[in-house]
Amino acid sequence: MKLAKRVSTLTPSSTLAITAKAKELREQGHDVIGLGAGEPDFNTPQYIINAAVRSMEEGHTKYTPSAGLPALKNAIIGKFKTDQQIEYSAENILVGSGAKHVLYTLFQAILDEGDEVIIPTPYWVSYPEQVKLAGGNPIYIEGHEDNAFKVTADQIKKAITSKTKAFILNSPSNPTGSMYSEEELKTIGEVCLKHNILIVSDEIYEKLVYDGAKHTSIAQLSSELQKQTIVINGVSKSHSMTGWRIGYAAGDSTIIKAMTNLASHSTSNPTTNAQYGTIAAYTKDDGSVETMRAAFEERLNGVYEKLTKIPGVSCVKPKGAFYLFPNVSEAAKMNGFSSVDDWVAAILEEEKVALVPGSGFGAPNNVRLSYATAFEAIEEALNRLERFINNHM
Ligand code: PLP
C-alpha cells in the first residue's frame, strides 16, 4: 500500500524514540537511566483525580461541546484573569486533547499550501512536523547560544516574506528552558503587529520557572498583541496531567471557531472526565503545583552544578521548564565521535544512559536531558556520563 505523500517525510518524535529504546533495553534486563522524559515524575494531585472520579460517578460520561465544557472555559478564563490580567470570552477559548493536538488543529485551521511559519531553533520537535502536515513551510531562525538560545526581533524581521503567516514563540522553552523578558517580547510583538504575523505563543511551561523568574505572556502586553496572539497552554506540565490530554487555545474568535469546527470532525471533544478534573485543577489549589515547581528547582540547582563540571560540557542555565540543554560538541570531539548523535547512541549502549540528541530540536551540538526524574537517578546518570567521557579520551 502506497502511503500518502504527507506522511512520507514525517520523522518520528526523537524524544519518544529514545524513551522507547531505553524501555527496550530495560526490558532486556539492563539498568537504564532515562533522561528523555518530557513529563513530570509526580502523580496528578489527588484533588484533581477525585474530581474526575466524582464526575463519572455523577454520570458525566457523555460527549461534551466540541470546544469544551462551558464550566471549563470559565475556569480557563478565570486563570487568564488571575495570571495574565487579560479578559477572554467563551468564544475565544478552545479546549482540546492536549496542547499538542490543539497546535495541530491550529495549523490545520490557519495554513494554506506554501504558507510560511517562522520557527526559532532549537525548537520543540513537533512544531515543524505539524506545520508541514498542514502544507506549510517551516522557516528556521537560529537562537544563538550566546543569547541563551533566544531570537531577536531583527532576526524575525529578516525572515518575513509575503508568505509568512505565523511566528512560534515558546517561553519557557522546550528544550532550552530559556525565557523571553518583557522587553524582548515587546520588540518581537511590534514586528509581528507591523507585518500582521500571527503569534503562536506556547506557554505550556508557564508555571515551571525558577530563580525568581517571572513568566510574561506576550498576549498581556497590549490589547493589540492579545488579538494578534493565539496562546497555547494546558495542564500536562503544571499539574502533572500528561496522560489526561487536556490543552487549550485562547485568541481570535474566528480562528477559534474554525478550530472548533475541525475538532467537531476529528476528536468530537476532549475526554469528559479529564475536563472535570481540569476544572478542579484551575478552580482549587492545594499547593501541589508550587510543591512540584520547588522540587524541580532544587533538582535543577543540584544537577546544573554537577553537569557543568564535566569536561567538554557547557550549559546555559535554564530559567524554566525541566530540561537542561548542554552543548556537548567538545566532549563528543574529545571522545573521537564525528557527531553528537553517534556519541549519544554510544552512551546509551555502553553506560545505559538515555539522552535526547539535539539534532531533533535543530541543534546538533547539544543534548537534552530532563530532570523530571529522581535526583539520585540524575546524579548517577551524570556519574556515568563523566565516566564515559573520561574512558574515551
Ligand atoms: N508544547 C511544548 C513545548 C511541549 O514540550 C509539549 C509537551 O512535551 C507540548 C506543547 C504538548 O503538551 P500536551 O501534553 O498538552 O500535549
Automatic annotation (TrEMBL):
Q: What keyword terms does UniProt attach to this protein?
A: Aminotransferase, Pyridoxal phosphate, Transferase
Q: Which cofactor does it need?
A: pyridoxal 5'-phosphate
A Gene Ontology biological process noted in the UniProt record is:
amino acid metabolic process
Please give the Gene3D superfamilies that the UniProt record associates with this protein.
Aspartate Aminotransferase, domain 1, Type I PLP-dependent aspartate aminotransferase-like (Major domain)
Q: What is its EC number?
A: 2.6.1.-
Which domain of life does this protein belong to? Bacteria
Q: What class of enzyme is it?
A: transferase
| Molecular function per GO | pyridoxal phosphate binding; transaminase activity
Q: Where is the Aminotransferase class I/classII large domain?
A: 31-385
The membrane-spanning stretches of this chain are none
Q: Keyword Transferase: yes or no?
A: yes
Q: Can you tell me which family this protein belongs to?
A: Belongs to the class-I pyridoxal-phosphate-dependent aminotransferase family.
| Record's protein name | Aminotransferase
